[in-house]
Amino acid sequence: MNTPMPQIKHVILLMLENRSLDNVLGWLYEAENNTPLHVIPEGSAKQYDGLVVGNFSNPYQYQGKTRSYAIHKGLTGNPTNVPDYDPYEEYEHVNNQLFGSAKAWDKKVTPTKSNTPKPANMMQGFFQDYSASWMTWEQTLQILQTYTPKDLPVLHTLARQYAVSDRWFSSVPSQTNPNRAFAHCGSSMGRVVNEHKSSVEQFKWWDRSQRKYVWARNIWNVLDEHKVSWRIYYSSPWPPKALSPLKKQHKGFTHYTFLGDYENLHRFKKMQFFAEAVKANTLDEFVFIEPKWGGGFGGKYGTVQGNDYHPPANVRPGEVLLKNIVDTLKSNSEVWNESLLVITFDEHGGTYDHVPPPWGAPRPDKSEGDGFLFDRYGVRVPTILVSPWIEEGTVFRAPPKQHFDHTSLIATVLKWRGIDPAKSGLGKRVSRAPTFDNVVNRTSPRTDFAELKVATAAKLRPIKVANKTNTKVKIYLGWGNGSRKASVLTVTGKYQRAESAQYNANTDTASHDYWVSVGYWAGPSSDHEPVDRFTGLQWRLLWQGWRHILHHQSMTVKQAAITTKFGGNDVYDRHSKITISNNTHSRVYYHLYSKAEKGGAAGKTLKGYINRGESMVYHSGKDTFRWRYRVIFSTWVGDEVIRGKEKVDGTIDRSWRFFWGAPKVIKRNGSLVINQPKPTVSFQPEGWDIRN
């Protein structure tokens, strides 16, 4: 058979993690009205199938109301960590994202050919599937947010300068391991989801007739049989020691998962040796690069930082990895002019895409799982081809009535080395998979080089905290996993009335989630409130545990409204007394006036402070005359000062405020209780909310 791409001696495949095409490349050609310079094949649509402002949305249902929210261009929060939580990627959730809606978001959706929704009704379940009770509303909206060329300049530059497919689908509408199995083996052997949440599994099974484990046949077995050199470069051993069944680590995820019995270990090298091979011009024919794994559930549950673009981790390390690989290849012009770099993502990872995956995928074998026959593709993912033999501004697709998926990687590599995919033993989907060798179509290599620049780390607005109450508050700002063991930052402390502080997250050396806890002083006035974390019984927590605060938010502790309640009666005997109780969070300053019942002669005026949680009692029954009593009080709204130094005259010092415009009557045997609920907290900005 004819071997395509004779000018190419090295194919380098980098498979990244969990991003849809719209999520990271939806705005690639927006400035050109989604019109690239070249499309392949000729006769296919002239426009890049990206996003258009205002054209796409997802519904959300809350308390019986349904509202539509537009797909958002750009990001909020920390722009390198969107979304803050890892979206769902399991088969059931992907079905919900594709075929669900706000009306059926909580039901298990199992589509079949007989009930296939029309494409116009698909792709409507991402928003509802992502939302969860532990997220803020602003975090929930992040599933509709998309990266722009400014956010991911390396990925966008490579896609524009070389070739990108807007019709490349993941192989399975599910998660990592089944899709990587299709990329290496042409089938997932009936596995629809990862067998374990840790992703630690091996594609082998027990063969009774042979009385041994049999591993799934893969592309490296085929290349070995045809004496094609190959190598896998990995970043870290796998599995993590804590998760390894035998406490034994292999040379990367791919080695353990698909080549666990492969004994020729020189085929596996750490990533730092990739640059040495390029420099020495000893790069193998087929090279597979395994990134450093990242991810985690996100938020208070923790995030693992890798360089694979996996949400919710920071995407900048992924940009750095891409730049380093391309710059390394370009550093040796001979290697660069003989190389094809393929960049793809294993699955969409729950992130939004607007193109419905097609049905009619060739079944690789007779396997099925969870009722799924592997006859439907997964969600679109970015696939970029980089080579000096590719025209700038190219968008490529499969021939009519065919679709690219990860088995096209196998088919193209095998054809390039003169191996018939139909005879490879890697299943029917590989044998029928379209190839992309026609994209490498220049007659001479390009000499222009696209300059790759990683986006400058976003400047985060400081996290601000402010005390607007009439008492001291304790504010603890920490990062970590949401437990009380979170590292405490410098804004921690007792903040007096009207004080504020801020923390500059730009000084962090790593990406963190931030958490806040607030307490207020509810005990009597004292110069010696305990400073240790809420150990004093008079400190009250506003909430149990920690609350999430976003990188760009401010938090204000607000004073609750003061209310008053009069009680008692006008019984006048030697036991009569007037009681004034202070149940607010600060001192009050009272005036108690007496006036004769008849004649209006003025009696006496009592003045004084009542500390927090205390009362004053005046024994009116001891008065020698029958008086009428009136009362007025002031609250302190100024800055905290040493007790006893506040101005006494409430009419002079502006930091004292009369609660009423004039004194009010209090009964001879009466009471006045001055109440104030605990402070409240507000976060700004709050984000958009369907409940508003």
Account of the 3D structure:
With 692 residues, the protein is an alpha/beta fold. The chain has three domains: 10-47 and 147-439, Alkaline Phosphatase, subunit A; 463-560 and 680-684, Immunoglobulin-like; 563-675, Hypothetical Protein Tm1070, Chain: A. Helices cover 14% and strands 24% of the residues. It contains 13 helices and 34 strands. Strands 2-15-7-14-13-1-12-10-11 form a nine-stranded mixed beta sheet, with helices on both faces. Strands 17, 18, 19, 21, 22 and 23 form a six-stranded antiparallel beta sheet that branches. Strands 27, 28, 30, 31 and 32 form a five-stranded antiparallel beta sheet that branches. Strand 27 and strand 28 (602-610) form a beta hairpin. Helix 6 (176-185) runs parallel beside helix 12 (407-416). It is elongated, with a radius of gyration of 34 Å. The two termini are 66 Å apart.
Give the helix/strand layout:
Elements: E1 10-16, H1 21-25, E2 38-40, E3 57-62, E4 65-70, E5 72-73, H2 91-99, H3 126-130, H4 137-141, E6 145-146, H5 153-161, E7 163-165, H6 176-185, E8 204-207, E9 212-215, H7 219-225, E10 230-234, H8 253-258, E11 268-270, H9 272-279, E12 286-289, H10 316-330, H11 333-336, E13 339-345, E14 383-386, E15 394-396, H12 407-416, H13 428-432, E16 463-468, E17 473-479, E18 487-488, E19 493-495, E20 500-503, E21 514-521, E22 539-541, E23 547-549, E24 554-558, E25 563-569, E26 578-583, E27 588-596, E28 602-610, E29 615-618, E30 627-636, E31 656-658, E32 664-666, E33 669-675, E34 680-684
Parallel strand pairs: 1-12, 1-13, 2-15, 5-6, 7-15, 10-11, 10-12, 16-24, 26-33
Antiparallel strand pairs: 3-4, 7-14, 8-9, 13-14, 16-20, 17-18, 17-19, 17-21, 21-22, 21-23, 24-34, 25-33, 26-29, 27-28, 27-30, 30-31, 30-32
Helix pairs in contact: 6-12
